Inverse folding.
């Protein structure tokens, strides 16, 4: 049994039984002593301007309404975006502070009532008139502001070698422009918060990926002492970036609770989520490639154009894939943004690589055809020996092997290379490939563990589990290092009272929080060994070969239960802290996870309907901490890739700065029937530079390539290259026979 | 939701004569409750008819079938008689929505479901269907899912039902009860109307008029095919759908029924195409001609231009499959 | 007072007829397992069994359910013992964040009965209704999962369904 909890084993999720029985408590479900009042957000219906008149009397007089909070009476707040020198997740998110409308959907009132039905109805009775101001709602190739930096601290521009010259001299060139639409994270749990305030302390039950910044943003926004704010987020119904920072309903619930000194619950309606939580902006990506006649890349150019929400410093590194995937003599990657008056634009699963790879890996495919080469062979012929953007060595590089192994397993050699070569009845059949890479990040993280004299271990961190499996892999790490059964390990997360961790995002959660826990466990081991050394009966024991197994410290032929060692310490328990922070390994090496993904699609020659029939991915992401949950992460990313390639588009109506398809009937996420047989293989190669565990990020790996594999398969099936995602049937129809 | 009086109706006779403009009948609620939450529908009185004895499927006259208005979409699609003799209807029902919705949605409610136009659902935007005279957000906005046939400058919305498309092709009739207790019958084809200057009216029903049921006449001979073209492979409204029943004898079209979904404010019976095909050779060329005749007046509004070729191609594909199947079954 | 039965327990309905079945459940301590993802029948997170059939609880007024039997995720297992479907979801990792999961499982529970009853789906062909991956995929398409656990969900249901078909 001990073995099943070892690092890497496919241990069932430790929180699984709670989740499948409905007993896991999500934000809106916390039971307080007094049932909270219910708040409903009233949204602005213009993109920018001022509130001219606001009449709340009808709403106030409506049944069950306790208060209608507006800028006229809401508690004092720091102006939006202050302090200047902090990051976007801790800067003030003030709302209902003045009459200014920042974007369509921006809250203009919070109706607080006894029941949801009363609050929602009364919200419709709030009358607002506006003084509109000219708004910028659309960004495309006209984006010309250079951001100070990109998400993750990356430079907006990278130039290596003389791109224009190399491109001009190349035998074969490609100059194509791709676009990706606005997209919604669309976590199944809408953003939700219950806030409780007693005049001094503020308790916030919410759904947020980063707990530490959530405390700080509330302290900054509401002018409160961070020590008086407690944020709890034990279970999170999906985040995908949209819950990194604290969202609008959380600020509103706090304002309501402070105003009334009564608990207030605000759950965003699904329609609210599209504007009151961040989305991914649309991108235009111009890609220029130059290659020698024999298919060696000589010039890679990537110009990205995207919107940036006014006063909100997030710029997506769309060029990430172009910068690091292939070797080249010259590289030019530039990012430009245009400030727009629409709702917040922020990270969404795999910022940069996800939509960057959609475009770039499609363009690489085009180039392979233009050079007359097989798409796998072309990629293999252009593997880099160092990071083309920084010149740094890779901590490890396994992309070529992923491609080779994937091609063999997928049966790539059965594929005719010419487009429109395969048919099955009225279906055109195509096969596509894409390289997959995702940057590996380590973030400072701490944890505290306690081993009690009953043999149970508790670990605390303000880390979160957004479905990634954090509770489970942390259980395994502690159980494995200390030789405890999984059932004796308890992981406590999602509470700002616990030691500061990295939080969930950027695929850094497992490696960072896991390494901090590893450090704590190793320190605890030292402590336990020290106690054992003092024991008379163990004087002659073999301390050099000390092992931790079955709840015991094993020293050659002698062993001693950990419970006994705890008791001998003279305390009821032993407690230690562990930490990790990025060091020179992350300075010295360029670190990535890798994969190669393959897709088979059919395209109906009558209707243009695209259906994915089969997908296969081979991934190399260091040491795998739990093969079951890791596979699920990759599976999920592949589903997103299919969804991005074929379905998802948040349609912006420029006239109103508003998304029109703000529901799940018309914002199409892939459904079960859209998802075919998916095969996932690991090439498990621990990376000694990544972190003390040797693991690397996986949550955002497969999405960084899956969509392009599908898109390339559509091209192979039809001979039609659709460069504006998603590839819906209307874009194929006119080109079909 | 706007507050309302809730009244459970135990028998049709309890529906009083003043059940009119301000009342709505509630059956499965899958569309009405949705719209009431958005306050797009704001009945003052909700008459819950879901417990009326109108949930039976009975054999009708001359080989037909009488379907009670409260028969669920699941019940109708699963009925052995429907599956065997009216497979077009069963297929259309199963292509719509999800099992959860079909378990709750009723026959009458399905007929009366309202459009999925983005601007109809967004109460901050103009919509002549929701608020007559406000204007139409879709005309110059996003209209990828909108109508190509029979639209007006007031409204380019489509009717979202799959079931109704099959019923129109099957010459089904609705039985109606007026608020004063009188009854009448209508072909389903005449139940829904084109938007014209009154897009707020989806159907010709009078205030307080209740659908009691749908009568299916005996099915015409031939192969039944319902083809729904959609972005997502399931749980999505039709971009275009085609319901067809084609009988081919000696290589010639013996009888044919065709209806389109997703192209107009109502299920669109393609009578011109039917006429063009009658007695003609069942060839791809003739199918294409028939489609072109039907779509001659089709008009796109930008985002939905593709629906014109899509409707043509889908119809041809459906007729091709149906012709092949009938030939195979009558060697 | 109007009542309905939830997992065998009598529950008194709100006197506000606007209250949906979903909101009735979510306001009851111990019944928050049923989730709200969209509140408009577009995601399936609120799937429960109403008199044995799966429905979207968000689109049903609670007052319509007077005297009905509702089964939620909390009512599937026996005490602390998880239902075989729940166990299969854990074993096959048929979820990640867990938010759509109660709806998925209630939906799957009813779906297996629908197949056993011979009710057809959009992918059922002339050979009749069988438990297969294609059938499960279509029949479970009314339950969105943004984490993308679909393939594992199919595995879990297939396993539980086959066990039901041939109890050992």
């Amino acid at each position: 049994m001990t073995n099943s909890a070892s690092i890497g084993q496919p241990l069932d999720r430790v929180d699984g039984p709670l989740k499948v029985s409905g007993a896991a408590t999500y934000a809106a479900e916390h039971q307080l002593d007094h049932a909270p009042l219910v708040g409903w957000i009233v949204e602005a219906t213009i993109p920018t301007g001022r509130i001219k008149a606001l009449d709340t009397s009808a709403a106030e007089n409506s049944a069950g309404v306790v208060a209608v909070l507006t800028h006229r009476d809401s508690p004092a707040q720091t102006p939006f975006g202050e302090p200047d020198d902090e990051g976007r997740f801790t800067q003030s998110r003030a709302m209902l502070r003045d009459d200014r409308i920042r974007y369509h959907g921006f809250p203009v009132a919070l109706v607080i009532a006894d029941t949801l039905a009363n609050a929602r109805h009364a919200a419709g009775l709030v009358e607002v008139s506006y003084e509109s101001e000219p708004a910028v709602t659309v960004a495309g190739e006209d984006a010309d502001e250079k951001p100070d930096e990109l998400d993750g601290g990356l430079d907006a521009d990278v130039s290596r070698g003389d791109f224009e010259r190399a491109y001009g001299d190349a035998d074969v060139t490609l100059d194509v422009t791709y676009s990706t639409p606005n997209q919604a994270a669309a976590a199944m749990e809408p953003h939700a918060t219950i806030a409780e305030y007693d005049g001094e302390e503020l308790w916030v039950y919410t759904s947020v990926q980063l707990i530490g910044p959530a405390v700080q943003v509330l302290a900054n926004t509401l002018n409160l002492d961070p020590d008086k704010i407690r944020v709890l987020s034990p279970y999170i119904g999906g985040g995908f970036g949209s819950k990194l920072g604290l969202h609008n309903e959380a600020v509103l619930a706090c304002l309501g609770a402070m105003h009334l000194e009564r608990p207030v619950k605000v759950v965003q309606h699904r329609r609210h989520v599209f504007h009151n939580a961040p989305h991914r902006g649309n991108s235009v990506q111009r890609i220029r490639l130059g290659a020698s006649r024999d298919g060696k890349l000589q010039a890679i150019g990537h110009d990205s154009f995207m919107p940036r929400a006014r006063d909100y410093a997030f710029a997506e590194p769309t060029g990430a894939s172009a910068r690091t995937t292939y070797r080249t003599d010259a590289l030019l990657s530039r990012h430009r943004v245009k400030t727009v008056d629409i709702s917040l634009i922020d990270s969404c699963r795999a910022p940069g690589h996800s939509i960057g790879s959609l475009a770039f890996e499609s363009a690489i495919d085009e180039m392979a055809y233009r050079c007359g080469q097989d798409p796998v062979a072309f990629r293999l012929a252009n593997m880099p020996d160092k990071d083309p953007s920084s010149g740094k060595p890779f901590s490890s590089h396994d992309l070529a092997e992923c491609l080779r192994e994937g091609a063999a397993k997928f049966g790539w050699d059965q594929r005719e290379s010419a487009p429109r070569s395969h048919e099955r009845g009225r279906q055109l059949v195509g096969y596509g490939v894409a390289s997959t890479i995702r940057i590996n990040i380590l973030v400072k993280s701490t944890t505290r563990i306690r081993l009690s004299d009953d043999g149970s271990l508790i670990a605390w961190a303000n880390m979160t589990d957004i479905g990634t499996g954090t509770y489970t892999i942390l259980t395994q790490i502690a159980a494995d290092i200390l030789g405890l059964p999984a059932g004796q390990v308890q992981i406590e997360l999602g509470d700002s009272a616990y030691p500061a961790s990295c939080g969930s995002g950027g695929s850094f959660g497992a490696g960072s929080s896991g390494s901090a826990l590893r450090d704590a466990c190793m320190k605890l081991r030292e402590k336990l060994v020290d106690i054992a050394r003092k024991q008379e009966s163990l004087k002659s024991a073999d301390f050099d070969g000390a092992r931790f197994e079955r709840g015991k410290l094993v020293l050659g032929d002698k062993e001693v239960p950990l419970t006994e060692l705890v008791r001998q310490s003279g305390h009821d328990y032993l407690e230690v802290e562990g930490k990790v922070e990025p060091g020179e390994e992350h300075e010295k090496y360029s670190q990535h996870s890798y994969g190669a993904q393959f897709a088979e699609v059919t395209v109906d020659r009558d209707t243009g309907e695209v259906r994915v029939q089969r997908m296969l991915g081979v991934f190399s992401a260091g040491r795998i901490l739990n093969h079951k949950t890791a596979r699920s992460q990759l599976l999920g990313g592949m589903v997103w890739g299919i969804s991005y390639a074929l379905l998802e588009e948040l349609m912006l109506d420029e006239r109103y700065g508003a998304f029109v398809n703000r529901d799940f009937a018309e914002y199409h996420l892939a459904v079960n029937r859209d998802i075919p047989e998916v095969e996932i293989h690991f090439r498990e190669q621990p990376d000694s530079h990544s972190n003390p565990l040797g693991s690397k990020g996986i949550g955002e790996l497969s999405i960084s390539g899956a969509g392009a594999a599908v898109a390339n398969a559509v091209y192979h099936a039809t001979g039609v290259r659709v460069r504006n995602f998603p590839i819906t049937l209307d874009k194929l129809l006119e080109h079909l026979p | 939701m706007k507050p309302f009086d809730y009244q459970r109706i135990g028998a049709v006779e309890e529906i009083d004569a003043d059940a009119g403009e301000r009342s709505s009948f509630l059956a499965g609620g899958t569309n009405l409750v949705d719209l009431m939450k958005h306050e797009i529908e704001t009945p003052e009185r909700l008459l819950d008819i879901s417990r009326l004895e109108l949930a039976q499927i009975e054999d009708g006259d001359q080989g037909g079938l009488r379907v009670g208005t409260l028969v669920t979409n699941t019940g109708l699609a699963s009925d052995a008689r429907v599956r065997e003799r009216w497979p077009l209807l069963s297929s259309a029902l199963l292509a719509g929505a999800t099992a959860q919705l079909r378990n709750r949605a009723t026959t009458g409610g399905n007929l009366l479901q309202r459009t999925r136009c983005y601007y109809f659902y967004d109460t901050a935007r103009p919509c002549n269907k929701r608020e007559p005279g406000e204007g139409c957000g879709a005309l110059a906005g996003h209209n990828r899912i909108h109508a190509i046939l029979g639209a007006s400058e007031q409204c380019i919305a489509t009717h979202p039902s799959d079931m109704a498309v099959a019923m129109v092709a099957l010459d089904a009739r609705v039985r109606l009860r007026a608020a004063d207790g009188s009854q009448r019958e209508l072909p389903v084809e005449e139940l829904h109307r084109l938007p014209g200057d009154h897009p707020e009216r989806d159907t010709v029903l009078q205030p307080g008029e209740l659908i009691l049921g749908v009568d299916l006449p005996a099915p015409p001979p031939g192969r039944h095919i319902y083809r729904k073209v959609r972005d997502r492979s399931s749980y999505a409204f039709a971009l275009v759908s085609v319901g067809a029943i084609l009988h081919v004898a000696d290589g010639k079209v013996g009888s044919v029924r065709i209806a389109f979904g997703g192209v107009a404010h109502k299920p669109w019976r393609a009578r011109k195409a039917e006429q063009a095909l009658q007695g003609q050779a069942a060839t791809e060329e003739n199918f294409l001609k028939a489609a072109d005749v039907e779509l001659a007046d089709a008009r796109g509004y930008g985002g939905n231009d593709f629906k014109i070729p899509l409707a043509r191609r889908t119809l041809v594909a459906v007729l091709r499959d149906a012709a092949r199947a009938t030939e195979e079954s009558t060697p | 007072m109007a009542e309905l039965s939830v997992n065998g327990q009598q529950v008194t309905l709100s006197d506000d007829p606007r209250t949906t079945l979903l909101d009735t459940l979510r306001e009851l301590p111990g019944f928050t397992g049923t989730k709200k993802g969209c509140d408009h029948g577009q995601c399936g997170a609120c799937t429960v069994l109403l008199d044995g059939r799966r429905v979207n609880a968000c689109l049903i007024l609670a007052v319509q359910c007077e005297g009905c039997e509702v089964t939620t995720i909390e009512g599937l297992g026996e005490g602390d013992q998880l239902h075989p479907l729940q166990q299969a979801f854990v074993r096959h990792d048929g979820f990640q964040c867990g938010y759509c999961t109660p709806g998925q499982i209630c939906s799957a529970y009813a779906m297996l009965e629908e197949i056993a009853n011979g009710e057809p789906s959009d992918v059922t062909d002339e050979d009749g209704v069988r438990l297969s991956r294609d059938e499960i995929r279509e029949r479970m398409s009314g339950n969105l999962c943004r984490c993308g656990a679909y393939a594992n969900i199919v595995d879990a249901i297939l396993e539980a369904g086959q066990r039901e078909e041939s109890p050992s």
